[in-house]
């Protein structure tokens, strides 16, 4: 029964003003999983997290933790801890007092308080500053303090809302790694909200992509990156090259698409048995798999697709070169490649080129019906 | 057992009734508040006195269980502006300078009174540094965010910024603030809660960090006028209150057309007029007219400065003239320094105009209550104010414009939510009386609140 650490069943939130912030959110999280939530501003990430934490009431659906229904349980009785970007450490309390706070609230016996606080201070290397107040802490120390405060109550689920948003890029990188290590070590479930897709993809065992209050896709990072299931995900995640078209046939894990650049094909992300032919679809090819070649270059094996166009710009940024290829009036595609490659292949502004990829690398997604 | 989060969002009086009836438990309620405080998303609480609160809650539990409450607010948690001394805690006035100052040796009398009445002290909350600005920005500990705009960070109002935010965002059912130029009424207005500025000297200010010894007053921010009535009683250490509701039909209301109606945001003007017509329909008698004392006070503030600036300079001269001035919010230093430039003649003129004005306003009102919009605008966005000191000072003065007239003439006032603008930001209606008429004021406010809240 209690196979899942966290289960959201058709979770829904309507704010008093009438804003539907979250709708039909289904999710099942295994013990010790690291789940990232990513999506544009206002899509409902924080609202979902706050419903899990018990900081916002749930308007509909159910919240289960280890099989037990927590929908109506107040925040102090939930086995969760929350860490926010504005972690709002109490500035007039010392590091130790800040960490102790949650244990006092949860009425842990005082002998235990000291033991648990000492152990977390040790684990997060806060020993030297245990008696300091917020004003004298560095960004990284504040972050570790916030984590210590969240972890000291020994939650089953740690909820993190853009916890690294206030940090500079280097610190962010190193704390990302620390977090990941800590999570594996403690083997507790993390739900991690971020704006930054690279962070979501690098941290999460699975990633939930949200848009306008709804879940668009829940997948492992590589699948999300290479196999989007909706136009939104195709555009939001990664650097996909996208060509519009109409479905001409779909069977046996392959979809053929008529586009104004010819017939192309890819792996369908939808149930082919129910899709009607002529449905509007997108052919999506991740940038990494698209090669740029002089026009008419011979194929070297495998089932590939090719579209042709004219080079309209070449921008160099350090080692990388961005080649913009104009396919027609309405569609230009930008390819990232290396300086040597375009030299060797004689690619220059005004020249005709082919863009080519392995058909099986492309995904076909249905446009909204 | 009632749902604890639902309970925590009720008025202090309703909570107290549920506690006394054994329908809820003060310990669980306190734990719930503390847990939510632990998950605050902006710097509202600077210091949480969790041990004290839980101890007090256990004691309240025993009293209530024995059917022996200490007061009508026994067991209700409250937040305190960090200007008020807590025994054993540092009073910081939200200044970096006092971060590590010595802890206070005693509870301020006002806190001792509330504690004797069984109220639970959750901890100390953020404010504008030294309580000196109406917008509530704090560069040292961060600005507590107005909960009414989930998208654009907006000013909480000040100086009792976090007192209002704590109440509005459900961290505490009620909170204590101080008001020297609008510091209770403005944040109450910006956050859609009730705020009550008392008359000078009514509620003890001993053990409360001073800005202006003359004008400083202490008062509650809460979710209803009833709460303010009970808190007015409890904070003074009284055990009964003579406050009686004044029926609308016998209310006389004066609307000054001088200064306080100038340059209002459209929604503020519209909600104000709407409130007036509701009161009129309920039977109150309205008169409108000029009040030259307000013009005179506004002019003098420009020319001569303010009592607050003069007194704040006296309180803080060692700091603002000393080597540590750089550690104080530059905008606060700028305001205190105006006091340094004032002459004895300026202060004497201010005091004479103040005394003459109090008498003249008393004559003019003759038992009527005065009303005005609490602030001419709703809570402004923070980012532009942080980026531009000139804009900050201009908006700050405008924010304080109406309320500071009440301080200058010692007019107690109750700020009541009276609607929102199109973007759901609260507007507020300020009901004032003459000095020391607090009990009639509260009695009238009970009725005005009822009229404003009634469904059309
Ligand atoms: N307290 C509130 N009252 C009313 N509406 C709210 C409230 N909080 C959030 N919303 C609205 O609900 C929607 C979802 O907001 P939420 O904060 O959950 O988004 P988010 O994905 O966390 O965004 P961001 O990436 O900007 O943090 C938005 O339209 C927001 O304006
Ligand atoms: Mg968010």
UniProtKB/TrEMBL annotation, chain A:
Keywords: ATP-binding, Nucleotide-binding, Transport
Compartments, record wording: Cell inner membrane
GO molecular function, one term: ATP hydrolysis activity
Alphabetical list of PROSITE patterns matching this protein: ABC_TRANSPORTER_1, ABC_TRANSPORTER_2
Gene Ontology CC: one annotated term: ATP-binding cassette (ABC) transporter complex
Family: Belongs to the ABC transporter superfamily.
Protein name: ABC transporter ATP-binding protein
Subcellular location, principal: membrane
Classification via PANTHER family: SPERMIDINE/PUTRESCINE IMPORT ATP-BINDING PROTEIN POTA, SPERMIDINE_PUTRESCINE IMPORT ATP-BINDING PROTEIN POTA
InterPro entries for this protein: AAA+_ATPase, ABC_SmlMolc_Importer, ABC_transporter-like_ATP-bd, ABC_transporter-like_CS, Mo/tungstate-bd_C_term_dom, P-loop_NTPase, Transp-assoc_OB_typ2
From TrEMBL, chain B:
Hydrolase in keyword set: yes
Keyword Hydrolase among UniProt keywords: yes
EC number(s) from the headed UniProt entry: 3.5.1.4
Keywords recorded for this protein, A-Z: Hydrolase
InterPro entries named among the record's database cross-references: Amidase (IPR000120), Amidase_dom (IPR023631), AS_sf (IPR036928)
Coiled coil feature spans: none
Top EC class, one word: hydrolase
Signal peptide positions on this chain: none
Residues of the Amidase domain: 29-442
Domain of life of the organism encoding this protein: Bacteria
Pfam families named among the record's database cross-references: Amidase
GO MF annotation list: amidase activity
PANTHER family reported for this sequence: AMIDASE AMID-RELATED, TRANSAMIDASE
Protein name: Amidase
Species, as recorded: Roseibium aggregatum
């Amino acid at each position: 029964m209690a196979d899942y650490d966290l289960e959201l069943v058709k979770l829904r939130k309507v704010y008093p003003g009438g804003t539907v912030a979250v709708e039909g959110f289904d999710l099942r999280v295994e013990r010790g999983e690291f789940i990232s939530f990513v999506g544009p501003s206002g899509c409902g990430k924080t609202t979902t997290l706050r419903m899990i934490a018990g900081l916002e009431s749930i308007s509909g659906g159910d919240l289960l933790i280890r099989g037990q229904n927590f929908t109506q349980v107040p925040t102090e009785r939930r086995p969760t801890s929350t860490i926010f970007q504005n972690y709002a450490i109490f500035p007039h309390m010392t590091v130790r007092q800040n960490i102790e706070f949650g244990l006092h609230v949860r009425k842990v016996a005082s002998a235990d308080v000291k033991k648990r606080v000492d152990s977390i201070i040790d684990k997060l290397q806060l020993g030297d500053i245990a008696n300091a107040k917020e004003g004298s802490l560095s960004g990284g120390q504040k972050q570790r303090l916030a984590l210590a405060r969240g972890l000291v109550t020994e939650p089953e689920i740690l909820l993190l809302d853009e916890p690294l948003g206030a940090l500079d890029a280097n610190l962010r990188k190193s704390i990302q790694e620390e977090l990941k290590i800590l999570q594996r070590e403690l083997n507790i479930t993390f739900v991690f909200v971020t704006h930054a897709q690279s962070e979501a993809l690098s941290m999460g065992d699975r990633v939930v992509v949200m848009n306008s209050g709804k879940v668009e896709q829940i997948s492992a990072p590589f699948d999300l990156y290479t196999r989007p299931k909706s136009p939104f995900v195709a555009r939001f995640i990664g650097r996909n090259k996208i060509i519009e078209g109409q479905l001409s046939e779909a069977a046996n894990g392959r979809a053929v698409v008529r586009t104004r650049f010819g017939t192309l094909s890819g792996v369908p992300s939808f149930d082919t048995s129910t899709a009607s032919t002529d449905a509007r679809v997108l052919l999506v090819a991740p940038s990494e798999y698209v090669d740029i070649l002089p026009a008419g270059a011979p194929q070297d094996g495998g089932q590939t697709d090719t579209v042709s166009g004219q080079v309209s710009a070449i921008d160099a940024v350090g080692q990388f070169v961005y080649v913009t290829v104009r396919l027609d009036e309405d569609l230009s595609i930008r390819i990232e490649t290396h300086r040597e490659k375009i030299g060797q292949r004689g690619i220059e502004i005004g020249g005709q080129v082919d863009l080519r990829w392995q058909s099986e690398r492309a995904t076909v997604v249905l446009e909204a019906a | 057992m009632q749902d604890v989060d639902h309970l925590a969002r009720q008025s202090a009086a309703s909570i107290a009734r549920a506690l006394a009836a054994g329908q809820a438990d003060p310990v669980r309620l306190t734990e719930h508040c503390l847990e939510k405080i632990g998950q605050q998303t902006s710097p509202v609480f600077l210091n949480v006195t969790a041990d004290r609160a839980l101890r007090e809650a256990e004691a309240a539990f025993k009293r209530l269980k024995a059917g022996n409450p200490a007061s009508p607010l026994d067991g209700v948690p409250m937040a305190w502006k960090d200007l008020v001394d807590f025994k054993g805690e540092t009073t910081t006035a939200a200044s970096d300078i006092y971060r590590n100052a010595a802890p206070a040796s005693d509870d301020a009398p006002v806190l001792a009174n509330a504690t004797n009445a069984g109220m639970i002290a959750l901890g100390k909350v953020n404010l504008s540094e030294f309580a000196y600005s109406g917008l509530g920005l704090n560069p040292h500990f961060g600005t507590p965010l107005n909960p009414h705009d989930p998208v654009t960070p907006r000013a909480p109002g000040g100086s009792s910024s976090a007192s209002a935010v704590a109440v509005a965002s459900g961290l505490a059912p009620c909170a204590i603030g101080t008001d020297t130029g609008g510091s209770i009424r403005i944040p109450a207005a910006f956050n859609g809660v009730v705020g009550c500025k008392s008359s000078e000297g009514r509620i003890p200010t001993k053990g409360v960090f001073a800005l202006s010894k003359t004008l400083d007053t202490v008062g509650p921010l809460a979710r209803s006028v009833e709460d303010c009535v009970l808190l007015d009683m409890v904070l003074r250490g009284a055990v009964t209150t003579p406050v009686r509701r004044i029926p609308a039909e016998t209310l006389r209301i004066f609307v000054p057309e001088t200064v306080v109606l100038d340059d209002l945001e459209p929604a503020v003007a519209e909600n104000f007029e709407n409130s007036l017509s509701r009161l009129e329909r309920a039977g109150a008698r309205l008169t409108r007219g000029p009040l030259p004392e307000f013009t005179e006070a506004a002019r003098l503030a420009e020319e001569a400065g303010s009592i607050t600036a003069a007194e704040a300079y006296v309180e803080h001269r060692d700091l603002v003239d000393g080597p540590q001035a750089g550690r104080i919010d530059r905008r606060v230093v700028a305001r205190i320094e105006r006091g340094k430039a004032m002459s004895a003649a300026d202060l004497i003129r201010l005091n004479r105009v103040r005394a003459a004005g109090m008498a003249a306003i008393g004559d003019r009102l003759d038992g009527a209550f005065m009303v005005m919009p609490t602030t001419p605008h709703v809570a402004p966005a923070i980012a532009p104010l942080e980026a531009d000191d000139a804009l900050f000072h201009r908006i700050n003065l405008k924010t304080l414009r109406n309320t500071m007239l009440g301080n200058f003439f010692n007019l107690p006032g109750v700020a009541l939510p009276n609607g929102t603008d199109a973007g759901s930001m609260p507007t507020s209606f300020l009901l004032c009386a003459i000095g020391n008429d607090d009990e009639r004021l509260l009695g009238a406010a009970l009725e005005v609140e009822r009229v404003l809240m009634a469904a059309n």
